[in-house]
Design a protein that fits this description.
Creatine Amidinohydrolase, Chain A, domain 1, about 35% helix, 2 domains, alpha+beta, 17 strands, Creatine Amidinohydrolase
Length: about 450
Amino acid sequence: MFYDWATGRGRISTRRAFLAGGAGVLGAAALPACAPGRPAAAPGARPTTSTAAQASSNELFAHVVDQSKSVTPIGPEERAERRARLKRILASSGGAALMLEGGATMTYLSGVSWWRSERLFALVMPSEGSHFWICPAFEEGRARSIIDAADGPGGDFVLWQEHEYPYAALEKALRERRIEKLLIEPQLRFMFAERLAERFGRERLASGHATVTALRSKKDAHEVALLRRASELTQYAIVETAKTLTPGLTGGDIGARVDRVHERLGMRAPWSVCLIGAAAAQPHGKGREGRLARGDVLLMDVGASLHGYQSDITRTFVFDGVPTAEIERAWNAVRDAQRRAFDLTRPTTPCRSVDAGARALLATLGFGEGYEKFTHRLGHGIGLETHEDPYFDGGSDVLLEPGMTLTDEPGIYLPGHFGVRIEDVLLVTANGAEHFGQWQATPRWPG
């Protein structure tokens, strides 16, 4: 018997089975116990909103406890080593400096998160000597309270006043430090790079994409533990949400519930795309106000952040019913394509070959060539950002290396009917790949 939504009983993933499906590096005791069944819903209950919905979610998920302390965050010593490693990368490529503004790479190197505005606040990392900060003068006090804190990265400040703009001060700082080549981090905005090029010399600026990819694309053991745990907890969040489903919920209602589970688990910035029936035939959805009925296909693409590291998991299943032959055929094909991609994931394999292998299998199973039914790339790198280098797509010649983490998410989309996507996170190892958490086992349940 599979899960019975009416009674809250059936074949569900237990804590032990859940961890057994993945590497379980953090130990079974770290995962919150699954409730034996979902809390009873009032007959004919309809979705609620606002304060009432929040109270309802708290009742539904009262058994879910904070898991954020089950793995430690990245510490200042690790970030210092990252900065030292960046210096080595820069030295090996000719001795340039890298400039970046607020975003994932700044956080990766320094632990500093700074919002982006029309005023340039940036970190410059030279291959030799100390890093320094470009900072609006009026923000100096706030910035120093973060950067010069006991666990902060330190560094000199180059200040600029509002009437000056940052470019003269930045150019002077670069020349004083004899920096002849400046690499621009890919996410630094063009308006800043363009104005700096006018003063410092266009020929002295170059893309820092390859440098940032070399720095961040291969995860160390601590990052792997964080990403693995984030995936495990998101899989748990999906299962716990699934237990509470009742007819009449909208995709938005379901998303709010899985977001709430993530929050109770101690994860931050949860997001969700929950699509019912024909809405799932568009990979990122079309219309989320349709109401859940027994026998509907439900696609849940959800994630959250654990100490800054992201999860991104998708499950597709039939709510409280038996899949039709068409749904089961499509679901089995997507599962097989996902496993084919997993088998192809190993060091020195080009990313495009993994995408091609999954796509070819779906074609042999009758789901069309190329992008006919599988309309997007196979997957993307994941780390501090939900989407980052490298990418499983047909144009990528990037060779896989141990430590890379990527999503594996084939899909089949049948407009007007339904869509199926299954997504998990893979780790490239010395001999192949590992999978975080548990594979989805059936189209009748997300566990």
